[in-house]
Model the fold of this input.
Amino acid sequence: MKKTLKAILFGTAALMLSLTGCSKGSSDNATINLWAFTDEVPKMVEKYKEAHPDFKYDVKTTIIATTDGAYQPALDQALQAGGKDAPDMYCAESAFVLKYTKGDMQDYAIPYADLGIDIEKAIKDADIAGYTVDIGSNKNGQVDALAYQSTGGAFIYRRSVAKQAFGSDDPAVVQEAIGGGSGSWDKFWEAAEILAANGCAIVSGDGDIWHAVENSSDKGWIVDGKLYIDPKREKLLDYSKDLTDKGWSNQTQDWQDAWFADMKGVGEKPVLGFFGPAWLINYTIAPNCGGNAVGEGTYGDWGVCNSPIGFFWGGTWILGNKNMADEKKEAVKSLIEWITLNTTEDGLLYKWANGTLNGEGGTKDTVSSGVVMAKSNGELAFLAGQNMFDYFVPANQYANGKNLTQYDESINQIWRDQVRAYAAGEKSREAAIADFKQTVSDNLGIE
Done:
């Protein structure tokens, strides 16, 4: 993504913000240093402290926005410098988490097992989504990080457009029409033709299919130290060209005004839907739908069904520093367990899934634990009362966490820029691929 998920959702503008300082007279080892790129995890820790008055540690929080790439260099420097101000706990977003679990900065992460967590049992007992475990595991197979949110993707569609094209807005009918769960794009493109004949687009732009294309690849961008273009990712060139030349999209770019206009239903042509996780509904489509109740804008005119291809998009992983003082480990363990593994109604996962972290009526979201999701209620008025968990829970199982590299954020942007240039007729397919390879080489030194 051009912007990271967290920067988009929360718009954190400050480069550094200390939310809570150390209490006067407290020793360095009585303070947990937490680093994050939004206030999301820090606020979770505040809730933990409220619920656990016997927690004896102060928490000093440093937030550095991912805007302009500021977070990673600062975090890296703090980890390398060590000392009393070094992060004890830190957060990493999906776009760059592999750098900290498998890549250049992995050496600073402490395996959860070394904090005293029986991690294999805990993952099994909580039914933690497999792709989140794969991403959070180091090269030796030890779990260094887990996520609290799950971001398996589904197809989020406009009910009125589905009725116009397919005669029904029922999720089962729409899923059949687009080939949901088939593992193939064939029926999706057939549906695109049906929609075009009805004056509609199947998606807003090629960015809407990118995450499913990316996540379906058999291999990542780097194979044996060299740049590799997986055939499934290379197909984005053809898909994007068809979306443009055949009028199957509105040719928008994600996170731009025209993309948001399609969510409101005021774009060039009515759009059937968007590929995304639950957060795309909560934090992107809903705020841009043009209303806050059924009958306003497109509010209530949405449904969810399985995507043709399994994928995930986004998420935040929690890590601990292996160089933290020994006396802090029990406290860090308690925080990490509460955020990522606790399946009771008192844990973060249940509160996050049911929108009760800050009291009743909050935003419901998908979480990493299948056990928690199974006992949670995902019904949304925005989806005409549909329970979104019926589709997002299995979506977590379809997602693949094994084809990623620590360079994905940069390489993905370069690839998508070249794809758009080809689809727009600005260069040939061969030139787009050659320019992609050259830009990766120039920017990252990867041949």
About this structure: The first helix runs from residue 5 to 10. The mean pLDDT is 93. The first strand starts at residue 17 and ends at 18.
